[in-house]
UniProtKB/TrEMBL annotation:
The keyword Nucleotide-binding applies. NCBIfam families: HMP-P_kinase, PRK14713.1. It comes from Kocuria soli. This is Bifunctional hydroxymethylpyrimidine kinase/phosphomethylpyrimidine kinase. It holds the Pfam family Phos_pyr_kin. The lineage of its organism: Bacteria, Bacillati, Actinomycetota, Actinomycetes, Micrococcales.
Amino acid sequence: MQSRVRKVPRVLSIAGTDPTGGAGQQADLKTFAVLGGYGMSVVTAVIAQNTRGVRLVHSVPTEVITAQLQAVSDDVTVDAVKIGMLGSVEVIAAVNDWLQANRPPVVVLDPVMIATSGDRLLAQEAEEALRDLLHRADLVTPNLPELAVLVGELVAEDWSTALEQGRTLAERHNVFVLVKGGHLAGDRTPDALLAPGQPEPVYEAAGAKVRTNNTHGTGCSLSSAVAVLAARTGDWSVAVGVAREWLRGALTHADELEVGQGNGPVHHGHHLEAHLVQLLTDWANGMGQEGGAGPEKGADSSFTEQLWARTGDIRSQIDDGRFVPALGQGTLPRDVFLDYLSQDLIYLQDYSRALAQLAVRAPTEQWRAFFASGAAGCARETEQLHRTLVDAGVPVTPSAVTAEYTEFLLATTQTRDWAVGAAAVLPCYWLYAWIGNRLQEHRERMAAESGDGGRDHPYGAWVDSYSDPEFTASARRARDVVDVLAGQVDPEVREEMARAFRRACELELRFFEHPCERTGTTHTGTAEGSRGERGT
Ligand SMILES: Nc1ncnc2c1ncn2[C@@H]1O[C@H](COP(=O)(O)OP(=O)(O)O)[C@@H](O)[C@H]1O
Ligand SMILES: Cc1ncc(COP(=O)(O)O)c(N)n1
C-alpha cells in the first residue's frame, strides 16, 4: 500500500446493485459512510435481487462503465477502490484498463462469483480474466468457493487447507489475501490475512459464529470496510481487524432490521445508535430547538449550549455505563444503590458548602438568594439521607472519587473567579435534571406498555425527585447565571469556566460508575429510594 492516509477517504465502489439494499453497491456505500469515508459508485450491473435470490442481471454496457469511471477520476482523487461484481470478460477488461491508468493507492478486490443465495454473478468463461486482474489489487477477499476457483482446486473443507490455498494465491499473484472462513462447517468463523512472502498470517482471528440467517452482503460489506479503513489508517492488519469487529457487530444486530423473508442484510449502522439517541434526546430536552439555534451551531448558541455540546461524549458514557441505565430499568442491585446514596450523602454535604460559598461571594442579591436556597435544600436532603442510611446500616466513608469531586468544588468556589465556581456547580444541577427527565419518560413508556402505572419501580422516588419540574427550573436558572456571566468575563475566565464544567461532568460520570466498580458492597437493607433536592 502506498502510505497515504486520509481522515475522510474518498472511496469508490465498482460493483453491481441490490435494490433491497443489503449487498453490492448499496452495502458498499453504507459501509463507506458509517466507517467515515466519502462513498462513490460506478455501477457494473443492475440486478433485480432480494434477500431470497437473484431474478435478473442487466449488464451495463462497457462504454457506459468506462465513461462512469472516467467521470469520477477526471474530477475526484480516489483514495481507495473496492471492486465487487464485474460479471463478464468485457467488464473485467474495462476495469483493468482504468486501473492501469488510474490506480488508486488502495485497491481491494472482492472476487464475486456466486451470491449467498447460490446464484451465479460471474460468467464461467470470465474466471480466467478475473485471475488475470488479481495482480492489480493490493488485497483479494475470496470466500472459500471463490478461493478454490482462483487457485484451481476443490473447495477447502478445513481451515488449514483454506490457509494453504490462500498462501498459493498470495504467492502466485503477489497480493495480500484475506481468507474468510464464513462458509466452513462448525461454530467458528476464522479469518486470516496473508501477505505475499510470509508463511504465517499477519492477522488471524476465529470468533464464534453469530447465530443469524441474515448474512446477505457480508462479503461486500467486509471488503468495503477494509478498503475505507486501510485508506484511513495505512495499515492492512488494523483495517482487517477493525472491519471484522465492526462486521461482527453488524451481524449481531442484523435481526433487528427485519428486512425481507430470506437471508436478510446486516445492520451497517449499529454502532451509531448511541449517537443518534443522544441527538434525539438533546432535541427532546429543548437543546437545538430555540429559534433554530442548536448546540452545534457555534456562535449562534448560548455559552451553556456550547458547553453541553462539547460534553456529549461524557453523556454517551453515562448512557452506556453500568449505573444510570440500570437505575432507570430498576435492575440496579440494591446494595450498589445504597453505596451510591452513602457517597451522595457525603457529596451533598460538601455541595451544600460549595453553594453556600457562592452565596457568600455572589455579585448580586438575586444570585445570593438562589445559591443560598440551593445550599439549604441540600442540607435538608443530607439530613433525610443520613436517617435512611443509618436505618439501613450502611457505612458512610468517602470514596476517592467523592473526595476528588468535593475537593474540586470547594476549592473552585472558594478560590477561583466566581463565574468559574458557578460553572463548576452547574453539571450537578443540569445532568441530574437531564437524567431524571429521561428516566421518567422511560418509566412512563414502560408503564404504558405494561399497563401497571409504573408504581412499583424500585427507584421511582429518585426518578421523581430529579424529574420534578421545580428541580428542572432550578437547573435552568443555574444555566442562566452561567450564561449571563459568560457574557461579562474575559476570554481566559470563560475558558476556565468551560474547563471547570467539563471536569465536573467527568467527575459526575465517575461518581455514577464508582459504586458499580467497588467490590465487596455487601450491605443489605430496604431503604426507600431517597428523594433528592440538589439545591432546589
Ligand atoms: N454467522 C457469522 N458470524 C460471524 N461472522 C460471520 C458469519 N457469517 C459470515 N461471517 C464473516 O463475514 C465475512 C464474510 O464471510 P463469508 O461468508 O466467508 O464471505 P462471503 O459473504 O463473501 O460469502 C467473514 O469475515 C466471515 O468471518
Ligand atoms: C451485486 C451483488 N454483489 C455481490 C453479491 C454477493 O453478496 P454476498 O456479500 O452476500 O456474497 C450480491 N448478492 N449482489
